[in-house]
Amino acid sequence: MRRSALRLALTAVLGLALTGTVVTVPAHAVPKPAAVVASTVDWTEEEADWYRDSVADIALYAAEPEVRAAAEAALAARTDQAVADFVETGWAKARLAATQRKTRDKNQVKTWATSGGTNVKKAANLALAGGDYAISEFVAYGYEIADRLDHPVGDTAVERERIYQRVELMITIGGPTVVAEGSTALASGDAAVIADFYSVGYAAANRTDWDNRERVRIAIEQRNQTLDDLTAGASAAAAGARARAEIIAANIDGLRYLEDALLAMRQAAAAANAAEQVFEQDRVLRPSGGRGRTALLEAHKADAIAQADRASRTALQMNAVLARVQVAANDLTESGQAHGQDWAQVTVSVGFSAQAAAHAAATASAAVTATLADSLALDADQNATLRANNAARWLAETRHQEKVAADQALVARQQQKIAEAAAKRAKDQRGIAEAAATDARGHADNAKKLRAEAQRASDNAVAQAQIASAAQIEANDAVQRESGAIDRLNRAGEELSAATNRCYAAEEEYNAVTAALAKARAEAEAAGQDADEATRDLKIQADRARDAFHAAQAWADRARAAADAARDEAEKAGAAAKQARNAAKAAQQNALTARRASDKAGQAAVGSVHAAELARVDAERVQDEAIAAVREAGQAIVQADIAGNASGSAAALAQLTIDRAGTAAYIATRFAAVNADARAALTVSSEALVLAQEQSAAAAKRATEAEAAAAHANAQARDAVDDIKPAYESVARAVDSAKVAIGAANKAYEAAVAATNDANNATTAAQSATRWELVAQREAGVADNAAQTASLAAAGAGRASASIDRAYAWAKTATAGIHTQAKKLADALKGIQDEKARQDAILREQQEFEDRVEEGILNYLKCQVAMADACKKLWNLVQPHLRTALDASKNHIALLADCYTGDKAACDEAQANGDKVQEFFIQTGAGLVEGAKNLVKGLKSLADCGSWIVVGFSGDYFKENCGKTVEGFRQMPAMLRDHPLELIHITEWRENPGKAFGLTLFDVGSFALPGVGQVSGALTKTVGALSNLLRLSVTKISSGLGRIERFAVRVADVPGAPTGRIAKITGAGLRLENGVAKFDEAIALIDDKVYRVDSTTARLDGPAGGFEGSVVHFDGGLISIENGIVKIRDLVLKPGHDVDLPETPPTCRVLAAARAAAMAAIPCNGTQPDGSWYNIENDIPLTLNRADNEAADAALEAARRVEAGVPGGPRSLTFRIQELLQKVPGATREGHAFRLKGADSLKRKLAGDRKNKPDLTPAELVDGIGDNIRYTALFEGTRYIAGVQDSVRVLKAQGYELVKVKNGWAGGMGNYRGLNLTWRDGETGHLFELQFHTPDSFWINKAEHYFFELTRLPKTDGKVGELELTQKAAEEISVGMWSHVTPPPGAADLNLPLGR
Length: 1396
Hints:
Blueprint: H1 2-19, H2 45-61, H3 65-76, H4 80-115, H5 118-130, H6 132-150, H7 157-173, H8 176-188, H9 191-233, H10 236-285, H11 294-334, H12 341-505, H13 510-669, H14 676-722, H15 724-830, H16 835-860, H17 868-900, H18 904-951, H19 956-978, H20 986-991, H21 993-1007, H22 1019-1031, E1 1034-1036, E2 1041-1051, E3 1062-1073, E4 1076-1079, E5 1083-1086, E6 1089-1093, E7 1096-1100, E8 1111-1122, E9 1125-1135, H23 1151-1159, E10 1166-1167, E11 1173-1177, E12 1180-1184, H24 1186-1204, H25 1213-1222, E13 1228-1230, H26 1239-1252, H27 1258-1263, E14 1270-1274, H28 1280-1293, E15 1297-1303, E16 1315-1320, E17 1327-1333, H29 1335-1352, E18 1359-1360, E19 1365-1366, H30 1367-1378
Parallel strand pairs: 2-8, 6-9, 7-9, 14-17
Antiparallel strand pairs: 1-8, 2-3, 3-4, 3-5, 4-7, 5-6, 8-9, 10-11, 11-12, 13-14, 15-16, 16-17, 18-19
């Protein structure tokens, strides 16, 4: 009775709640009145469900918010008692509260209708006319909107916040549509969207909720009416039959729905379990920074929700089945029939089991939601932690940059002080330099005056020397005439003696002898007359030469005095200039110090500013990371709420599952023994019960974990936010430091500018002083040349004349000695009968003659003590060639002796041999004359140059004529010391020993004269030799660069090594920088051993600006050898005089130039007009025909394209190889500048190959070249083998094919040590070479290449190359160089398979 009363009451409440009127209750549902309603609820499950569903309808659709709130509270309590209390008393209280509110609202609206503004009054009257709903809506939000129309408010933050709060209130009291649309508006975060919902959207949404309530009310009325109609129109019998049929049909449908619900539950459970498995797998990776696989979890969630929705739809369908069964069971009961009730009970158990399965599926869905939310919360926590850590890291970096800025500011202040001090010193040095420049000019003026005086004296001395030399030439003619006369006289005496001796043998020839004696006496008288005449002429010329010599000597003394005075002034000018240069150098050094300090201060300022900027950026990063951490923490909180809500839903659904499963099990248990459907229901309910409990527990666990993650993320976010302030405080301090640094840098710059100006002024003064120094030196040099010319003229003429006199006196004496000694021998032999004694006497006389001759020559060849070695070398060379003449003379003595003893045949042979002896000495005289003439030519050349020297060393005449002569005279002493055998007329000795003897006598005699400067009659040859030596020792500076191919430097003496060693330096590539000359790579040849030259610096002999465009050479220097490396110190780079550079063929340029070169004596190097190729290397010509040359050019062009890459085609091969080598540990790339083989290098190789392979076609000849593109990789010895193997593996992995291996470590490449691999590029098919070296083998390969090139030239026995080496010597040097390379362990045994 109580249950019926409650149901009646609830029906009434529902009707009133929805419409304000009582809904008609179906007749069969109306209970009888009850006087007392018990306080204890005793509902069946069906009844409880009905009441809860009804109260839920009230909570959703009741018109008054007070009633909805009371219904929601009753449902939230989750007890039947609360629902019953609501039905019994709660609804009445809620209605009363609603009525009271409505009364208050109505009175308030009435007040507004009379007291409000225009819009408020209008809207209030409309609300009063619309009834309770309109009034409540006007109070809730309408009045506020109308009032804003009467009193507009701007779009301010305060107004937006107020609207936001109002919308939140609307959601709180609104229906489902209001809640949904209002929540969407708030979630957008867009103030305009929220305001639109507030002013417009809420009214529409609220109207929708009201209309929905109306439709529910109508549906309830229709349902009740239908129940009445069915009950009233059924008869008992028909009802029973229909009821059973309906029960059976419902049972069939229920079983189908049960299966669907079971399947959906299991699939939902599978999705939940899969999500849990993914979550746990992700957990393992989280400590290492892993994140959850959100997409996969969302997929499982969607699957679980879909299955839960499917199960829910099945449950709803099952509700209809249950309703049908209940109705049919009631009908069956009312019809008085019991048969079929068991089926109804089983069907009910099936339905409750299906509902339990649906609730369990929903529980699984909620668990998946919780799992996903937990994963996202953990992700957010990790992200927040990462952001917080980043914030802390950027804070530390900000503080580091603050310190950097402060340190740089300190550096800037220190450099400011350095710059200011250097500027002060530069100013002081400027004053010193300017004073010294003034002194230098005064000394230069004095030197100029003295130079003019020296030149006048020199001109006079040269004129007198020419007079003396001309007289000497004429005197030589007289000497020859006198010598001839004496010879005839001696011959007559010989004939007379021979005739006299013969007369003893044949008395009958007396008359003939008498006639011969008369003839000899007549010839002697004639010869005496000729000798007297020649002697008189000789005396005249001797007196003339002697007077000229004395006059020349006097002028020479005056010239020397003036030159010495000019040199003294030049030295004083030099001292002043040196002082100026030193001051300028010191000023420039101080300016450089100031500039460097300024640069460092500027760099420090830039560094400080940069650090401050970095600090600001880092601080912003701190702030960004903190904001991101807060955002992640918020996300964690949201996900924790989602997980909590899902956990609550899962718990509620699990409870519903328990309720439904328990009821189903209670009913099915009674029929399970006999009914399979009941057993099925029992099984499903049990499975649903277990699943719901498991998933509820899992959801609770995920919610707890998500909440902890949110708390941790929130803490991390707070820590990150706390880092923002100290970060920006560090920025402020860094900025202050940057300001200090900038100020110091500006002051340092000002000091540097001042120092630079003073240094430049000092340099200008020093340059001026240097110019005056050069003027003074030039004037002194001209004066020296004038004095030297005068000395050469005087001393050369006098000594040359004396030399000729002594030579002829000796020759005459020697000739007369021949006859005298022969006569003595004949007298001595008259009484000697013993033949042995006779021969001994002959030998003694011959030796006596030889000793006298040699003594005479040696006395004549007296040399200065300092030149003893040169004289010894000279005598060793001359002596063999004199042997012929001496032997002939000695033989002549023996013949004359025999002749004197009566041997007629000997007399005839002596006559012929005497002619040879006489011819030798006649040619000796000719050589002396020619030597004298050459000396006169040299003196004349010097005299002609005198007037040009005054103008300077830049005139064309001086370049073409005087420059070589003057330089030759200056270099002559060194030439005589270093190359004495080059000046002794080797050719003449072979062809005409007599003439060569005369030339040599004159040359050596002139060399030995003190003060003469050791100038010889071989002047022209000497100058030419000097020019050849100088050709490769000079270079012309262009853009601060040059290259000296060969120069010599003295090697410092060391114990145990020969003294006076000279090193030949080759391949010095010059560069001028910072006021000095430098070269880094060169090689030295010392005692046929090659050394590497260390980086060398040479002092510039003059201002740096004056070297551009000048021809320069090295001077001085001293070599020491340390640890196998040559070090050069005290080297000076001097601007030189013009020297003929080697006649290197010009490079062929364009066609016109090629034609011109083809017609020239020296063809051009390169491609010729006919398309062939010509090149001279080390004096050896190399050629290719046109076809071979074109094939070489095509191969080079193909290599260039592959190396550089083709747009739209394969990338640059160089870039690709570099990228691959970067992947190999320990690899160092070298030789990038030489990655392409040069045209001449390739063609030289082809020219050599063509000689060995004449039958190959041009294409075949070129195809054999695999190194047109070549790269080099270096590995240290311990890493070499692994590095090579790694490189090969990397290249093969990228498709490169290894086609050839040449292992120099195994001895298969001559002297070369290294590994050369030829590869084929997979993209282009082009061959290239990759060389593998150690650091030592790489350097030796570069240094030894010159000698390798010499050995590769066509074979010759002569000397080749600039170092003038034989190919054998070059080979020995190459072997010696490579012997210093240690092979890496295992390199010789490397096995590298060909292919990919």
